[in-house]
Amino acid sequence: MLTLKLALRNLIGAGTRTWLNVLVTSLSFVLIIFMSGMYRGLIEYAMRIMIATEIGGGEYWHPLYDPEDPLSIDDAHGLLPPGIAAQVAQGRAMPVLVIQGSMYPNGRMMPTLIKGIPPGQQVVDLPTGDLALPRTDRVVPVFIGTGMAQSTRLQLGDRFTLRWMDAEGTYDAVEAEVVTIVDMENFKVDRGQVWIPLARLQQMAAMADEATYAVVSRETDLLLDTGSWLARSVKHLLQDIVQMVQADQAYAKSMYGMLIGLAALGIFNSQVLSIFRRQKEIGTLMALGMTRSRLVGLFTLEGGLHSLLALILAAVYGGPLLYLAASRGIPLPYEGADIGFVMAKRLFPVYSVGLLVGTTALVAGIVTLVSYLPARKIAQLKPTEALRGRVI
Amino acid sequence: MRRRHIILAVLAVTVTVSRAWGGQLEDTPTAEELIKAMDANLTAKTQILTSRMVVHGRRSSRTIVSKSWIVGTDKAFTEYLAPPREAGTKMLKVGNQLRTYSPQTDRIIQISGHMLRQSLMGSDLSYQDMMEDQEFLSAYEGVVEGSELLNGRDSWILILTARETGLAYPLRKAWVDKEWLLPMREELYAKSGKLLKSVQVRDVMEVEGRWYPKVWVFKDELKRNSRGTEWIVDEITFDVPIPDSRFTKAALRK
Asked: What is the C-alpha to C-alpha distance for residues B47 and B240, in angstroms, rounded to an integer?
């Protein structure tokens, strides 16, 4: 208790030097938690949106389908294997057919993917309800995302021509009408594509009952036997996004290192200075009977208490700031589609208990270590030399 | 060459004899005769031609000059000569495979799948359109619907329907000039009956005893405000021997 009291008194007695160190350390605390929270928020958002709108509980791919290779799309269509077809019949999976085509919004030609999806499906959060509405004309109902609407300058109710080549290699064209425009938050189901009823696309493309891939609902497990089709787990489908964030986190970690390094350097410096200046005090305490190990403990505690004060200070100004960021989000200056990443327009950082405890333990540990290193020299001191102030 | 002359002669005799009988119905040649006559004018064992393609954009137009070597309907080799940006680009079609060579990248790329449907150098023509140059007779069967004046010239109206599935355009409507026996205007339709493209012949020339289009205008009818793409044949020779080495991948890099 005496050691703690002495340590606190000495620390506060050091005045500006202590508070500068505490401020730098608290900044490290807040910035590390904030940046880690940003990365976590980024990943969690991307995963949540992709699972909800695109990948559900996993996918089955036609053996020739490669979403990263547009050249594969022409040949990637076929009948669903029996196991997958059974899941589709039970409503636990939905087939999607993809073909290449061209659209002519306002008379301009644009290449596009035409995707067929069962109207009213419940597997992913895509607004397919309006595709099921009965029509008296031959016009194809289409839903598009806001990104696609922006690039094509299409609005609700607008009509345009869709042109494609069917499975036999014959051109066909039809009028289409935009029945739904929704912000899908996932450019992978938005940009460069239009969604139409599956049965209609199968008929248009002369690909009866065929699909390119199937999405499994979140509550359904992937089949082990998928015939010639390929099962793609959620983990597999998200690995790109996780790897992208992990690659960027290497940069973030070097930033954390620099922040902690700055704080540690300040504390190390003040510890060295403190021990040099307080040699007579050290000699006096030793002469009065304080053991060397207790003295080392006293100085280490003084240094270590920087992290406690920094934590309190960080909580005072950083707490509200972090809370504000987490509750209101941070507006992002660019679109996720521009950098190939599923991102929200506002990013909401996510702080976990593990992140808070881990960051606190890391900073406290490093601060205590850099406090202990200079204090070790006290163990070599002789009281008489210390009283004269000549040794260190 | 000899076959073509015989066909043209037979058609001329048919028309003359039926005119002598005086009946309007008898004047009308059969669709097959018309198609054969068109094929005789448009196709040859080999062709070597120099042409200009004028692509009209919204703000400006650009002219692409090329030289092509063609054998029948299966093999074609085109080298682009101008403008400097396109000069040296080559294109090789053998059967249903199309390859391009770009000197900037020094790479040969096979054009396949959806790329075939993309525009050829920004024009109203697609690579697929380039590939579709088989004889009408083998691909389509026709019906003569009557005749009408097109740009002041008497023309037969010929409806062409694909003989089998798999043709890019299953239905065509052609206005065949009664004197030149060339399709002076063609409309290309989708399976649904929607008009996709039109081809118009604005000028013709007589070469080696046959009529051949000198200026074609291709137009993507789905594009609004499109001025079409002109294709002007400056020079053409028929039935000149072309070595097989011209149609190899190695020739693309030469």
From this structure: 7
Say if residue A181's pLDDT is above 70.
yes
Task: Provide mean pLDDT across the span A18-37.
Answer: 85
Inform me whether the pLDDT recorded for B68 exceeds 90. yes
B193 touching A (Cβ < 8 Å) = no
- Pure H helices in A51-140: 82-89
Q: Please report the sign of the dihedral spanned by the C-alpha atoms of residue A11, residue A12, residue A14, residue A18.
A: positive
Best of B114, B125, B171, B221 to substitute, by most chain A Cβ atoms within 10 angstroms, is B114
Could you give the C-alpha distances from A111 to A98, A105, A163, A194, B66, in angstroms and in order? 13, 11, 9, 11, 27
How confident is the model over A323-356, as pLDDT tens digits? 999 899 888 877 766 666 777 778 888 888 888 8
pLDDT for position B20 = 42
Q: What CA–CA distances, in Å, run from A66 to A75, A190, A284, B242? A: 10, 18, 77, 41
**8 Å CB contact between A74 and A242:** no
Q: Predicted confidence band at A39 (pLDDT cuts at 50, 70, 90)?
A: confident
* Distance of alpha carbon B61 from alpha carbon B123, whole angstroms: 10
User: Residue A104 and residue B115: Cβ atoms within 8 Å?
Assistant: no
CB B248 within 8 A of CB B90: no
What is the SS3 string spanning chain B? CHHHHHHHHHHHHHHHHHHHHCCHHHHCCCHHHHHHHHHHHHCCCEEEEEEEEEEECCCCEEEEEEEEEEECCCEEEEEEEECCCCCCCEEEEECCEEEEEECCCCEEEEECHHHHHCECCCCCCEHHHHHCCCCHHHHEEEEEEEEEEECCEEEEEEEEEECCCCCCCCEEEEEEECCCCCEEEEEEECCCCCEEEEEEEEEEEEECCEEEEEEEEEEECCCCCCCCEEEEEEEEEECCCCCHHHHCHHHHHC
Structural contact between residues B11 and B33, judged by C-beta atoms closer than 8 angstroms: yes
- Residue-wise pLDDT for B14-39, tens only, equals 544 444 443 333 478 999 999 999 99
pLDDT > 70: percent of chain A:
97
Place of tokens 């970690």: A253
Choose among A61, A49, A87: nearest CA to A238.
Answer: A49
- With an 8 Å Cβ cutoff, is B194 touching chain A? yes
Q: Are A39 and A244 in contact (CB under 8 A)?
A: no
Compare all CA atoms of chain A with the CA of B58 and give the residue at the minimum distance. Answer: A108
Backbone angles phi, psi at B46, to 5 degrees: -140, 155
Q: Provide the sign of the torsion angle of the four alpha carbons A204, A209, A213, A216, taken in this order.
A: positive
Q: A36 has which bridge partners?
A: none
Distance between CA atoms of residues A17 and A11, nearest Å: 9
B125-183 pLDDT, tens digit each:
888 787 777 789 999 999 999 999 999 999 999 999 999 888 889 999 999 999 999 99
Q: How many whole angstroms separate alpha carbon B229 and alpha carbon B237?
A: 23
Total length of chain A: 392
Decide which of B91 and B132 is more confident: B91
Nearest Cα to A161, choosing from B194, B116, B218?
B194
Whether B107 has a pLDDT exceeding 50, the answer reads yes
**Shortest alpha-carbon distance between residue B173 and chain A (Å):** 16
Stated pTM of the model: 0.79
Q: Which residues of B touch A103 (CB under 8 A)?
A: none
